[in-house]
Structures are given as C-alpha cells and as structure tokens.
Amino acid sequence: MALGHGGNLRELAARCGLDRERILDFSASVNPLGPPESLRRVLSRNVERLVHYPDPDCSELIEALSARLHLPSAEIVAGNGSTEILFALARGCAYERGLIPVPSYIDYARAVRQAGRAVRLVPLQESDGFALDWPALEGELRGGDLVLLGQPNNPTGLALDGRQLLAVAGRHPGTTFVVDEAFADFVDGYRSLASEMPDNLVVIRSLTKFYAIPGLRLGYALARPGLARRIRQQILPWSVGTLAQAAAVAVLADDDYFCRTVAVVGDARRRLADALARLPGLYVYPGVANYLLVRLDRRDVAAPELSERLLRQGIAIRTFETAEGLDQRFFRVAVRTIEENERLCDALAAALDSARVPLLACPAVRETRLDKPTVAPLDSCGSKKPGRARKRTPALMIQGTSSNAGKSVLAAALCRILFQDGVRVAPFKSQNMSLNSFVTRDGGEMGRAQVVQAQACRLEPDVRMNPILLKPNSETGSQVIVRGRPVGNMSVGQYIGYKPQAFAAAQACYDSLAAEFDVMLLEGAGSPGEVNLKSHDIANMRMAEYAQAPVLIVGDIDRGGVFAAFVGTLEVLSAWERQRVAGWIVNRFRGDPALLGPALEYTRAHTGLPVLGVVPYLPALDLPQEDSVEFKSGALDQPAAADAVAAADAADAAVEIAVIDLPHIANFTDFDPFRGERDVRLRIIRSAAELNSPDALILPGSKNTRADLESLRRSGLGERIAALARDGHTEIVGICGGFQMLGREVRDPLGLESADATPGHEPAAGRSAGLGLLDVSTVMAEEKTLVRTTARHALSGLEVTGYEIHHGRTTSARAAPLFTRPDQEAVGAASADHRVWGTYLHGVFDADPFRRWFIDRLRARRGLPPACSGGSRYDIEPALDRLAAAVRRSIEIGEVYRLMGL
To answer: 27, exposed or middle or buried, with CB in 10 Å at 0-12, 13-18, 19+?
Structure first.
C-alpha cells in the first residue's frame, strides 16, 4: 500500500472491489484488542454535551495526564492526534534544518517541508539491521537542527538506547530532539524519556494506537514550558473534540486494559514473527512494537505486487515509498489477533507459492531473532506446513438477548435444515444450566436441549455436545457435571474459580467433535450482555471466539422490547465481541412481518447489522423444553390441543393428570407425552388450593429431594397428597426424586444435595421424613447412577425404555417391585393395590403402549371405555420437520450459509 499511510479502508475497498468491512487491515498498527470496554459508555454518556463547544484548554485531560505522568500541566500539550502535534511543532520550533534518520515515519519529512525548512535524510544501514549509528548521527549535527526519531522506530520497530539519546542531547544543546513515542506503550516495561526531559527534548505520544481509537484523533506532546507554549500556539482552537477528551480521560484510567494489551500483543508479536520467519523468502526484523518489518528476498515478486495479491484476498499490508528509506523488497504488517494473524500467514503462503523461481540467498545482516514462545499454541501458524494454520470447522452460534428467547429451538431448526440439505452437522453448547437432563448410551449426563438438537441432526446424543452441565441444587449452588460425569457440588464462587478448568474441557470436547463433522451449530446461554458475568463467561462470546463462529442473536418479540434489546446488547459488548455478531433474528412474532419494516431498518441503521429473519410465533411445537423457565412461567399449563381437550371435557371423556411444580423440579419433560393425548387434561399444581381430586397425581424429579419435601409440607401440599392417598380415587406416581419422597425417609449423610446449604433455606446433611405412602427408604450415595435401560412393568407386562439419574439407593423389604431391568434389579416399587407407585425411570411415559395402558386404566376407574383411537404417538420427528420448514421460510438461509462459509 504505497500511499504514505496505512489504514485507508475506503481506498483499499475501491482497489479490491470488496466492502471495507471485509478487509483485514494489517496496514495500520492499532491495538488488536479493540478499545477498552469503558469507551462506549463514555461516548454514550457524553453525546448530550455535543451541543456545546469543547473545552479549548482540554483541562480535564491535561489534569489526568499530569497526574499519570507526574509532570506539570504547563509541560503538556494536547492535540488532534500526534500528527497535528508533529506539524505544529515543526512550525513552532526555532531551527534551520530537519535531520531525519531513515527509514522513518513519512510525515516527519512532510511536517518539516511544510514549515519551509530543509530536510536532511540520514540513511540507516540495512547491513546493520537499520540500527541507529549514534557517532554517525552526531557527525551530521551542526547546531540549529531538529532531529526526529521514532521510539520505537516506525517502520522497523527497533528501539533506541534512551541513555545514549539523552547523552547526545546533552552534548548538543543547540539542537532540538523530537522523540516520537506513539507506539512506545506497546513495549513491555518501557519508561518514557519525558521522565528525564532536558530543555531541548520534545516527546510526542499518541493515545489512538494503543487504545484503538484512531477515529477520535488524540495525541499529546511533553516539553519544557517555553517549548510547550510555542507548540500550543500553533494548534487551532477547539482542536480536540468533546468526545475525544472524555474518551481519553476514561481510557487512561484503565490500568487492567494497559497491562493486558502489553501481555497479549507481546505474545502475539512473538508468535507472528516466528510464523512469518518460517515462510520461504521472508526475513523478519526483531521489532518490539505492535508491527513487524519484513524483507522479501525473492527475484520474482516485489512487495507492491505481493500487496496486490493479498488485497485480492481481502488482506492489506503496508508497503513503502522510496522517500521513506525502504525499497520494494520491504513491507510492514500490524500485529493483530491470533486468528487474524493465522489468516495472514495462510494468505502469504498461498501468494508466495505462486512464485516461479527459487529463493535468493539472504544477504549477510546482523541478525537478532525473536524468542519463540515456550509452548506453541494448538492453532499456531506453521504447525504442519510453514506459515499454515490449522483450519477450523465452519461454525455458527445462536445467542439470545435473554434466557428463553428461543435459542435452543432455533438451533434445533438450523440443525434439521442443514441435515435436510445434506450437511453433516453437530450441535454444541459449552455450558448448560438445567435440571432437565438425559443419559447417553455410555452413561453420560447432558442437557436435554442438545439431545433434541442431536435428534434434529439424526445423531446419537453425545456428552461432547454439552460438556458442562450445571444442575442447581440450591439458590447459590449447583452440581457440576463435566464430560457427562459429576465433579462435585459448587457454590457460585467455587465454580467461577473452576471455570478455566471447565472451559479447557469444553474446548477439548469441541475440537474432538468438530473434527468429525462438516459444520458445528453452537448455542449460547442466557445473554452475552450480562455485564456481571461477562468477565468469566464461557458459554457465549468466548466460545464463539474459540470456534471462530459468527453469531446470530435471537430476541423474543412476544415479551416486548426486542429492538431495544438488540441495540442494548450490542452496546454492552466489547469490541472483539461485537465483531463476532453477524446479525439479528426476531423470534415469536404474531402478525404481518411487513409491519416490522421500519423497526428492522432502524435496527440495521443503529447497529450496522441486518435482521436476517422474523420467525413467527409457533404454538404447540411439541418439543421438549430446555429448562424450567417456560414451565415455571405457566406458559405450558394448557394442553397442546386445547380445543380438542375442551371438547373432550364437555363430553366428560377426559382424565385429569396433575403434576406438582416442585421448587427444584428436574426432568419436567417426563410428562410431555401426555400433552398430545386428546383425552388427557394436564394440570400444573403450585398450591394446595389448586389440587382437587385428579385421576392421577405425578410427583416429578427433584434436584433437592429433602428441600422439596419440606416445601410440600410448608405449602400444605404434603397433607393434601396424603389425603388423596387415603381417599383412593387418585393414582399417585413418583418419578426419581418424587419416588423418593413417597417413601418413609430420605437420608443424606454426606450432604450431597446441600453442600452449600444456607441455614433456614436448605437442609444440611441428615434425615427427612418422607410422605410415607410407599414402604421404601432412600439413602443418598456418593456415586451417581447414570444409565439408560429397558424394564418390564410388572402389572401390564409392557416394556419401557428410560434412563436413571440419581444419587439415591432405595430399598424395601415389603413393597412390590414394579419395574424390573434385564439384570433383575428393581427400578420402582408399588403399594399393594398399585394406587401409589414410583420409579427411577425418566421417560417412562414416552413409550406409547405403556402410556396408553396407564391412561386407559385411569379411564376404566371413571367408568369410561378405552380410547378407540389407540392414543397418540409420541415422536418429535414431525415436529422437527415442521419447525425446520417454518424457520426456512422465515430467515435468509442463503445468508446464514454464507456466514458459515458454505
């Protein structure tokens, strides 16, 4: 890019015919971390101040710099970028000639010439690695000179010896030395020369490069008061705008960002230098800034031609004009993120592979190689072929503006669409918090949402699809399950400390799974904009970054405020997180999508991102829910086919099945199959007053059996259930935790369900009396039972398939075995009349014959004949196909495929 400056995206876009957003710009050396998170908040907060003129003296900014640098305000000059400072200095200083060692920043010479002074360029020797020859420089000085030096040098990245510079300045008081420290903050441990500033020294510094805000234009000079005053007089009034001043004060206070930048950029620079040096025909100079100077030792291609080849791939590098002291063999690249650096290495390797003649031998130079990283990254350039990065599996991530926005369902829909289109796709959610879990064939536990998504892909569920599962067992704690196995109960604080280890496991699972498929479809958790969680969130943007997945954010318009949620979510994301977001999806819309036109345009104009679909409200999806949010909200209280049930009720032909909504309810999808039965009225019970005399009552699973037992007693539901058992009209069923509650007692000697119990809220280790409706007792065991199995029902002789997830060991000397596994072990028990029974089998009602037998038995007690239709078939395959068809019609599927690179 031989334009004298890098970063002109408009000109670059015109040359390569690409949108500027699609250009990966290595020509401008800006912090790859993006601006500090505080920036957007500061800019937003100060927009209203734009109706006033900015402070012409930059008072607040000067005070902040003074406090930070321990220099008096009179020695600080603020300007509209370090370039404005440079040109003002060239006009305001008294000197006869500008002396500039080259290669150097091209505007040094321009500033001097515009001031009407002569320029003397002093070539640095390539054979010396462009190191500054101090005796040679001193030999050029004749008094009345203005010497301009980069620290570190731009473009070589080499640092000067500060002590030597101060010594030379001391010996030549009639010469003014200007030290440009625009990139010095990137140098680990660097101490500004302003700390020992002689009268004939000016230090120029930039805030735009290090803090990634070049669009705001902000720099400052440090000089003794007399020299500072002359520079200040050359700067136009109101040069630094209101937003720039406010931003500068905020970013200067962000010490965490400063330290993180130095560490991250230093590591990325070393890795990039090592990768580039492995490419044949490239020599990398050992710079210390956030850019690298590279020499191209090829006969067949010069740097400008290489630049054009790369630009056709959407990558811009910086080449040089002769006036800058470098010829057409040289180019400079910025240090960007690891992912972007890998893309550069790939593109360079491809461009150089097209060369037709052998490499030149490198001329003799004084060589200082950068240290290699101690441990090469898994994805480092050149791991298999020099300069080449390991390719990632194409991926897409669905995130939401909130929990229950529809992420899981839309992810399942896209999984089925990809499957229908012949793509081998697998679902993935790094961390799931849900009490609705499933057991795989090999005995691993995972969230039900990924089980549904796996079925959408026609895959067997695999714990790698959901490597971390959190099962809340109190208000402040959860059982943590990693790779399908429990690793312990943890409080929130304990889990935050464990997260790095958990995320490493999730990354390993992702890599293993992604290696087997063409596409990965990821789902986030909650919202990426939870500002209290973002710093340690491993389920949203950090996982998207690892997978290199573009992100579509889903919002639920049915609950209102969806467009504000889109804008607000983007506002609280960091720069690197916003770069991941590719668009929005409006979910659960009722009405004519054409009415949303102005809102969709507003969203695009405000965020710069398109709305890629408006998905209609889809009632009665007949898909298992991921977690209890919708269940607890009451949205699922009515049967799926409400009109059919109403008709059945009118004919007195429906049986009523009540389900107790426990505080720690788990696997509530166990009774989903009843929703499709036309002769069943399913009711969710949350208080004793709601519980009349149903035909059947189900006590579902629980993640904290003893706490939920206590809740039943406090609410009066326990007494009401006992009364129903005495009356004999209602069949009472317990599943897993509900089965344990029906017994005589539940003992937890190890405190497995209450490791972080809060006094007065959750029971600690000990014993709780059960409801006493079954002659069984339960002891919580440390080893968790996780198994998928078949079992035969003693009364009907029917076979059912389900899965067990429990710590409890339930025994009885007198209760009748109800379900028996092939190994003859009982997984359930019943009272003598089978009016009260329980089992550990989740999914027991999924089996169509057994569910129908159970319903017809309830009908018979009411004097009703068996249903002549034989009941419904519980199968989510048709639901998945209906969902996929609706979503395919509603979103720009071609654009979604393009985002994934398909």
So the answer is: buried
For residues 695-699, give the mean pLDDT: 96
Ranges assigned E (strand) in 164-304? 176-180, 201-206, 219-222, 282-284, 291-296
What torsion, rounded to 10 degrees, do the Cα atoms 816, 819, 821, 825 define? -30
Residue-wise pLDDT for 111-163, tens only, equals 999 999 999 999 999 999 999 999 999 999 998 999 999 999 999 999 999 99
Domains of the chain, CATH where assigned:
38-253 (3.40.640.10), 395-616 (3.40.50.300), 629-868 (3.40.50.880)
Dihedral over Cα of 89, 90, 92, 95: its sign: positive
Q: How far apart are the first and last CA of the chain?
A: 31
Least confident span in 9-18, 441-450, 744-753: 9-18
- Residue 858: count of CB within 10 angstroms of its CB: 20
Contact 155, 324 (CB under 8 A): yes
Q: Say what the pLDDT of residue 512 is.
A: 95
Mean pLDDT within 190-216: 93
CA angle 145, 150, 156 (to 5 degrees): 130
The position carrying tokens 């495929």 is: 897
Please name the helix (run of DSSP H) or strand (run of DSSP E) that holds residue 118, with its range, or none: strand 118-123
Whether the full predicted model's pTM is greater than 0.85, yes or no, is no
Q: How far is CA 20 from CA 10, 17, 24, 257, 583, in A?
A: 6, 9, 9, 27, 17
Q: Which residues contact 175 (CB under 8 A, 6 or more apart)?
A: 95, 141, 143, 144, 145, 146, 147, 169, 200
Report yes or no: 580 and 551 within 8 Å, Cβ to Cβ. Answer: yes
Helix or strand or coil: residue 243?
helix
Active site residues: 736, 842
Higher pLDDT residue, 173 or 755? 173
pLDDT digits (tens, 9 = 90+) for 250-306: 999 999 999 999 999 999 999 999 999 999 999 999 999 999 999 999 888 999 999
